[in-house]
Design goal:
The structure is a homodimer. Chain A is an alpha+beta fold and about 375 residues long. In chain A, strands 5, 10, 11, 12, 13, 14, 15, 16, 17 and 18 form a 10-stranded mixed β-sheet that branches. Chain A has a 4-stranded parallel β-sheet with strand order 3-2-1-4, sandwiched between helices. Chain A has a 4-stranded antiparallel β-sheet with strand order 6-9-7-8, sandwiched between helices. In chain A, α1 crosses α10. The longest helix of chain A is centred in the middle third of the chain and has 17 residues. Chain A is globular. The interface between A and B is large, with 49 and 49 residues.
Chain lengths: ~375, ~375
């Protein structure tokens, strides 16, 4: 793997054309790179700011060959890219991060097992393929617990809470026959995340930990600095670095944690790992010299990682559905940084943009 | 003129495809707008991040009709757009800023006369069409003086210094038969500029004054805060507001000043007016919540202007020619924000990008 950074003018392929791809494409442009988006939707946000779109399914072999031929490096903006497509590409072009991280991130069971094996704490969990395994799992985790499909879950989809044993049948039915994992319900005080990057030379840099609040299972706000103390912050970084090294990861990734009150401080339980730039890192574009998007581009092109220091405190708020309608006309507050994604239709639950409110740095 | 802001998804036309158009297009995208670039060069920086390019000359009537039909508002990124093209467009679509500002900015004589008429100070100046007028002008301004074509001059082009009367012939020859203006040579201590915006409702907001250093007649660095005191800063804003109102200006514009030592403070002499976003305002993307590019998009779409407060001190440095080659690989300094323009070839004197170094705010 070459350690010479790709020169300006090189071409970056991005699989996926959503808002994360869009913000990656803009960060790439600011570093003088060109971008090609592979995305079946011709109206997708990312292609609007990219040099070119290949309009095809993510696993279309002809399109993948086109992408590999056109690009100096390929990345992806979401973790549900078919692993086979990435493996196919890896034989033909550098793909960063590669299929190894993707496989783990696509399977909650692999993900939690890896975290545990690396010495991180998690909720109690057990694999569930059928009713007998669910009974055994409930005995192991205790109730309440949450049953989740091992694959393709996000923003609360593919999840069912089990409060009493009588909830087991309907929860299992909600899995639709897919492999699942039962997780003990964590009585957490805070949800936090760390967005980190691992470069080609194996160095890891993390942005400050963000404290996240959800609404209807969708991220609502990320606040930085978080209310976590320095030891928990250091622990989050240590876990992220271990995960990055274990996965031979190149690029930006996020680790979401439950923070459980523990005396004066907090214990951290790994909840999820996202092998990509992450919604809880959007604040970096407003409060840091270098955003998570630029950091990802730096990592995958072999550039040195940027410094992750904050110049401001901030609160990032997602704009969901028609929340976006009023923001443009009304946001005159000092320090409000608006970012919209160019989506034509404001459907309920759809992430349309975000606003980050910055204020002078206090900690 | 409607005061209702254009909704997200509206289309902005940009005449000119250089780096200013590129940064305007990215700012437009971040507010959810789409962009169409009119630019003859198919490899131009702006089209790489825009929704669409119309590849044609700036005065191609068919292309202008296409642009007017496709866009909800049209703007321009450089002041040498043919006035006739803008007038033609104005009959068919809102053009902001319009032809009035363009006419003044394209003619140094009109520009300086306007500044003087608005009560601002300038260097002594006189129109020069021939040798007899040059003699009269030299008597009026004294020597040394600078002879400049009234039109199409930038970055030191179309200028000749006259130190002694014997320099007059060669200076006049350098004007190539074009109308010129002789300006007394100003022994200034500082060069500063103010980047301001005027909105649809006539409100004006200015970013902090930047102190500029040139090298080979090209902007080298802009430093904020400047070394000017508060009275000179207030005077710069007052002059900018008067100019904006006089020109019925909509959008961002820059006023460049010579600052002449005057007791404890400085007197400001208007040097040039640029009816567009300006190189000496590039620092705003790194040190303010809202950049000059977003401010321009806000103004021309009828959105409320954003607050112009700085969160950081900064020094913006232009990357000229092959200065760009090392920057990507070496810039790991904390607070260094790199921005490259996607130009394929690093020709000598060509603006390839800029880097803004931010540091905690001191003033």
């Amino acid at each position: 793997m070459s350690r010479t950074p790709l020169p300006a003018g090189s071409v970056i392929g991005i699989i996926g054309g959503g808002q994360l791809g869009r913000m990656l494409a803009m960060a790439a442009a600011r570093l003088g790179y060109r971008t090609v988006i592979l995305e079946p939707d011709s109206q997708a946000p990312a292609a609007q700011v990219a040099n070119r779109q290949i309009t095809a399914a993510y696993d279309d072999e002809k399109a993948l060959a086109d992408l590999a031929g056109a690009c100096d490096v390929v990345t992806y903006e979401f973790e549900n890219v078919p692993v086979r497509a990435v493996e196919w590409l890896e034989a033909r072009a550098p793909v960063r991060p590669g299929s190894k991280a993707l496989k783990v991130a696509q399977d909650r069971l692999l993900e939690k097992s890896m975290a545990r094996d690396l010495g991180a704490q998690t909720a109690l969990f057990a694999a569930v393929a059928d009713r007998a395994e669910l009974d055994a799992a409930m005995a192991a985790t205790g109730l309440p617990a949450v049953l989740k499909t091992t694959r393709l879950g996000y923003d609360g989809k593919g999840q069912a809470k089990i409060v009493r044993p009588g909830d087991a049948d309907s929860a299992l039915a909600a899995m639709n026959g897919q492999m699942a994992v039962l997780e003990s319900f964590v009585h957490f005080e805070r949800e936090v995340s760390v967005v980190a990057a691992r470069g080609l030379s194996g160095d890891v840099k993390a942005f400050d930990v963000a404290e996240n609040a959800h609404r209807d299972h969708i991220l609502h706000t990320s606040t930085v600095p978080s209310s976590l103390g320095a030891p928990a912050q250091a622990e989050a970084l240590k876990i992220a670095a271990a995960i990055g090294a274990h996965l031979d990861y190149i690029g930006v990734f996020a680790v979401e944690f439950f923070a459980v009150r523990d005396g004066e401080g907090h214990r951290l339980l790994v909840n999820e790992i996202a092998p990509r730039v992450h919604n809880s890192g959007h604040w970096t574009e407003a409060a840091c010299a270098i955003s998570q998007f630029e950091q990802h581009i730096r990592a995958i092109t072999g550039l040195p990682l940027g410094e992750t220091a904050r110049h401001s405190d901030c609160v990032m708020e997602n704009l969901i559905g028609d929340e976006v309608d009023e923001i443009l006309a009304t946001a005159t507050e000092p320090g409000a940084v608006i970012h919209l994604y160019g989506k034509a239709e404001a459907r309920p639950g759809r992430k349309m943009g975000h606003v980050t409110r910055i204020s002078p740095k206090t900690a």
